[in-house]
Amino acid sequence: MLTDNRKVDPVEDAKYRSLVGVHLVLIDERGRVLLGRRVNTGFGDGLFHVPAGHLEAGESVIDGLIREANEEIGIEIPCEAFEFVHVMHSGAKDGRVQMFFRTRHWNGHVTNREPDKCSELRWFDPQNLPTDIVDYCRQALAAITAGEAFSLYGWDES
Predict the structure, then answer these.
(1) How far out from the chain centre does Cα 115 lie?
(2) Which of 65, 39, 22 has the alpha carbon at shortest distance from 132?
(3) Contact by Cβ (8 Å): 83, 46
(4) Which residues, 6 or more positions from 46, have their beta carbon under 8 angstroms from its beta carbon?
(5) Is beta strand 52-54 parallel, antiparallel or unpaired with respect to 20-26?
(6) Predicted pLDDT of residue 5
(7) In order along the chain (158 residues), what is the average pLDDT of each group of 10 residues?
(8) What are the residue ranges spanned by the domains of the chain?
(9) If one looks up domain 19-153 in CATH, what number appears?
């Protein structure tokens, strides 16, 4: 039997917990992906990104996606409409795990419900994404297009 008698400081231990990001790859009837231009967020401002957010305490990944879709773009997505397409483990010091789910089915009209954080919403051909896109988002969308379910981002590969 293994035991661990280390005393762990909860503040020190917290730095080893991963944040989980949930990302919505929304595809319209023409096969285009929805991207929003970030503003006033402190991360990637001026760049495009898919609708996304972080899980809240006690929230499932699907519940987080449903909440973010409603908060950011005003649509409702049924639980069964989500298709898991990619997970990315980030080498950032907080060890983020980014989960990407695709859907082609939703209720309501896509609307920018957070104009203080998003200056515009636009649909793009996944094969012709803008150059001004958050780097890890570009990498994930390319991996999704290639059918790759997993990638690393920002790790020292040496």
Answers:
(1) 18
(2) 39
(3) no
(4) 37, 38, 39, 132
(5) antiparallel
(6) 39
(7) 41 67 98 98 97 96 98 98 97 84 98 98 97 97 98 79
(8) 19-153
(9) 3.90.79.10
Residue for token digits 């917990």?
A: 17
Task: Note the pLDDT of residue 6.
Answer: 37
Structure tokens belonging to residue 46:
């001026």
Start-to-end CA span in the chain (Å): 36
Judge whether 125 and 61 are in contact, CB under 8 Å.
no
Copy the structure tokens of residue 60.
């499932």
> Locate tokens 């919403």: which residue?
121
Q: 45-59 as b/e, with b when 16 or more CB fall inside 10 Å?
A: eebbbbbbbebeeee
The confidence score (pLDDT) of residue 44 equals 96
User: 70, 146 in Cβ contact below 8 A?
Assistant: no
Instruction: Look up tokens 């409603």; give the residue.
Output: 70
- Rg of the chain (C-alpha set): 17
* pTM: predicted TM-score of the whole model, two decimal places: 0.88
What SS3 class is residue 119?
Answer: strand
Which two tokens mark 132?
Answer: 């001004």
What would the 3-class secondary structure string for 64-99 be?
A: HHHHHHHHHHCCECCHHHCEEEEEEEECCCCCCEEE
